[in-house]
Amino acid sequence: MLSTAPQPSLIYRPGIRTLPLGVERYRVLGAGSTVVAVKAGDSILLTDVEGGQACEIAFCDASGRFDSAALGARANSRGEGLKALLVDDNENTLRTKSTFQRRNIDLGKAETLRLFGEDSLPGATAEFKVARDGVLIAAAPGSAMSPEHQNTATAIELRITRSGKPADRASILPEPMADPLQDIRIKASTASAYLVRAGEYIQVIDVSGRQCTDFQALSARKIDKGLDLALDSTVTRTLLGRSYPKPGLPSKSFDREFEPLVEIVQDTVGRHDAFATACNSRYYDDMGYPGHMNCTENFNHALAPYGVAPRKGWEALNYFYNTNINHQNQLYLDEPWSRPGDYVLMRSLTDIVCVSSSCPDDIDAANGWDPTDIHIRTYSDKQKFSRAVVTRMTPDADAQLTRETAFHPRFSALTRNTTEYRGYWLPQRFNNKGPIEEYWACRENVVVTDLSPLRKFEVTGPDAEGLLQYCLTRDIRKLSVGQVVYTAMCYENGGMIDDGTVFRLGQNNFRWIGGDEFSGQWLRQQAEKMGYKAWVRSSTDQLHNIAVQGPKSRELLKEIIWTSPAQPAISELEWFRFAVARIGHFEGPPVVVSRTGYTGELGYEIFCHPKDALAVFDAVWNAGQKYGLKPMGLEALDMLRIEAGLIFANYEFTSETDPFEAGIGFAVPLKSKTDDFIGKQALVQRKEHPRHKLVGLDIDSNEAVGHGDSVHIGRAQIGVVTSSTRSPILSKNIALARVDVLHSELGTEIEIGKLDGMQKRLPGRIVKFAHYDPDKLRPRR
Known about the structure:
- A hairpin with a 2-residue loop joins strand 39 and strand 40.
- By secondary structure, the protein is of the alpha+beta class.
- The strands form nine sheets. Strands 9, 11, 13, 14, 18, 20, 21 and 22 form an eight-stranded mixed β-sheet that branches.
- The chain contains 16 helices and 43 strands.
C-alpha cells in the first residue's frame, strides 16, 4: 500500500458566510445608513440584494470634506435621499449623525453618488476603488410605504476588501457608539484594569472574533473599606434564575452582598459562561502545561495597583466563552459564537473597578486555538442606549439589535414585562391584568395585541403569481384580489419551511406574510432558479400591525374604519378577506384591514406604516373602552392559539414535519391543484403513507405539561407533546402532540412522561383536534 499524508480536518460553517481574509460585510438597512472607515486601496462592492432599491454613497476625507473623486467617480446627487433619512431621530440615524459630528462632516455640503433604482434587478452590483483614507457613507433611501402600496425600502449589502496587511486588518474596529471616555486595547493573553463611574457604559468588543474575555468588577466604595467583593456568579444565577444575565428584566449581575454592580444593556452574541472561573495555573498544570500564562494571574497583576488581594482563581463573567451542560451533566466547551466586532454593552450601577482579559488559552477550542485582542470602550452616563439582544434573521445574516415596534410606546406604558421575539420587544403580560384576564377579554369582549414582527414580503412582477404557485401549497391562481389564503411552504422532501398568508393586491401584486425571514430568501432563490421575472422585497420595517380580536372586534372597528365605496365596509368584510381603508375618515392614516387572526375568535389585523402606528393604536384604544378592550401579551395569545389548534413554528412543525403531520393538511389541495409545486411529489407519498399525526390531548392532571414531554402507551414512547396550556374555558390541562399514526384514534389512553419519562406519568387521552371550536364557527360569524 502507498503511504499518504494525514488529511487535514474539514470544518463546514453553513451558518457563517465565509469571507476571504480582509473582506468585510455591512448591511445598510432599508431607509437607513452606515458609516465605515476606509483606507487608500480598499475596494468597495455594493449589492442591491432584493432589487428595486436606490442607494446613495459618499466619501469624506480626514477633514470631513465630501470628495467623490476619491471613489473614482463624479457626484450626481446632493444627497437628498441621505438628508431625508437623517431627519428622523432613530438609533440608526443618531449613530450616523454622531459620526458626522465627530468627524466634522457638514451634511449641508453633501455630494453623493446615486446608484440602482426601482428597475434594478436583484443582485445588481456597483464597484469602486478608494484613493485616500477617510470614511464611506452608504444609504438606502426610501419614503414611507402606504400599506396598500408596495414601494418598500430594502437593504443594500456593502463589502469592503481591505488593502492592508492582515495585521492591519485586525486593527479595524466598528465606529464608536458615541464619543468614548476610554479606549483600551487589551492585547492577546493580557489583562487591564480600569475605573468606571456610576451610570457610565462599558463596551467589551471581540476584535477578530472567536476570542474569550473574562470580566470582573468590584465596588470602588468597598475597595476603599478593604473589601474586595467581586461579582459573584452563584448569587447572580440564584437571583436571576438563569445561567447568566441578558438584556431586559434579568439584566443585573451582583456581588456577594447581593448588590448589583452592572447591568447588561446590549449583547450581540448571547452565548457566554458564568460557571467556570477565569482560567488559572491549576487548569494548565493539570493539562500538562505548567507555567502557562492565565487570566487569573493577569487579573492579579492588573488589580494590584488598586489594592485588591490576589486569588488562586477568579470568578468572572466569561464573555464569548462558549460552554454548556450536556444530558450527562458534563460541562463542555467549543469555539465562541462571537464574530469580528461583536460586543457586550454594560452599564455601571455604582463606581466600580473593572478588569478585563484577553484569554491566553491556546490549547483547546476556547479561543478558536488562536488568542487575539479584546477592545474596551467606555461611554458617558449622559448617553442613552436601547436594551437589545442580537437577532440574525437567517444564519448567515448580519446581526441586528432588538428593536421596538412602532406600537411599543403605547404598549410599554402598560407593562415592563417584555421579551425578544423575531428581533423586536413584545409584551408577555400586562400590569394589573395578567394572562388569565387577557385571555377572557379575548373570549368575551375584545383585545389588542402587537404582531409587528411577522415577516412581510412584497411579491411583484409579471411572474409573481407563477412564483407563488410554484413555491406554495395552495392554488394561488384561484385567489381573488382582496382575498387572503393560509398556506404552507415546503422543501422538496415535503418538510415545512414556513406557514403564512398570501394577500392578493392586484393581478401581479401579492404580499406574503409569514414567521421566518428565510421564506423571502427562499422565494428569491426559486425566482432566480426558474427564471421568473418577479421581485420579492422585504416590507417588515414598512408595515407594522396590531390584531384586534374578540367577539366585539367588529363593532369596535365599525366605529373607526373608513372604506371607500369600492371597498367592503367592516360590516361586509368576510373571513380571509381584506380591505384598503383609513382611520376615521377619507383623509385619515391609511391602513389595510384583514379579517384574520391567531386566537380562534372573530378578529381583524390592522397594517399601517410605522409613522401612523400611534394614531392607529389611539383610535382603537379610545373606541374600545366601552367594549371592555384590554391589551393582550404573548402568554395569553399562546393559550388561545393552543385551544384553537393553531400551529407554531419549531413547536408543531420543523423542516422534518410535513403539513399533514402539522395538522394543516387542508392547506395542501393535492387533488384540485393540478400545477406542480415544490414538494408535491413527496407530499403525495407522505399523505399515502403517513407516520405521524397532530392530535389533541386532554390531561387528567393539574400538573404542568411542557413542549418536548414524551407521550407513552405502556413503556413505549409513541409521540411527543408540541404545545400545552391550562385551558381556562375547559378548566383542564390540554396539549397538542405529534403521535404515531397507529395510535392516533380518538379516545386512545396515553400517559405523559415526566422526570426521566418512566418514574412519573400523567394520564390523558387523545381527543378531537382542535379543543375549542374545531369547526371554526366563531371566527366565521
